[in-house]
Amino acid sequence: MRICGIDPGLRGAVAILEADGSPWRIEDMPLRSLGKTRQEVDGAALARFLVEAGEIRLAVVEAVHAMPGQGVSSCFSFGRNVGVVVGVLEALGVPLLEVSPRTWQGDVLRGTPGDGKERALRWASLAFPGASLFTPRGKGLDGRADALALAWYGLRAAGRAVA
């Protein structure tokens, strides 16, 4: 059985870990275009990816909320994308755990130096040295790091990993 971690943003990702903690696959969030400049989560592509993964014991999704200063349209689009992710998981019958950033970061990233996205990238680079976490130009793919950390949180919550 596998554990899934999902960072639901447009620059998010989906990470699936085996029961022993090794990564099965990490993918950027599948997106589809809405006109020339807008994108949204592609629920059908996400569903295909999750079905391909086989039996998923638990999916851990970052519980997100509006941030001060975000526009109404931006908040609505983000909420819609989160709804697509949750809807796909529910339609597939995958058990879901929503976890606040403070909770999973406090648990998984404890003791990892750094701040913000760099901290998650540092943790993921050490925990999963073979994972593709940077672009060819060296830019960090923090959505992938967050998805791995969420999956690891889920693995620990499911009692499958040695702390």
TrEMBL record:
InterPro entries: MOC1-like, RNaseH-like_sf, RNaseH_sf
Top-level taxon: Bacteria
GO MF annotations in UniProt: crossover junction DNA endonuclease activity; nucleic acid binding
The protein's name: Holliday junction resolvase RuvC
Native source organism of the sequence: Aminomonas paucivorans DSM 12260
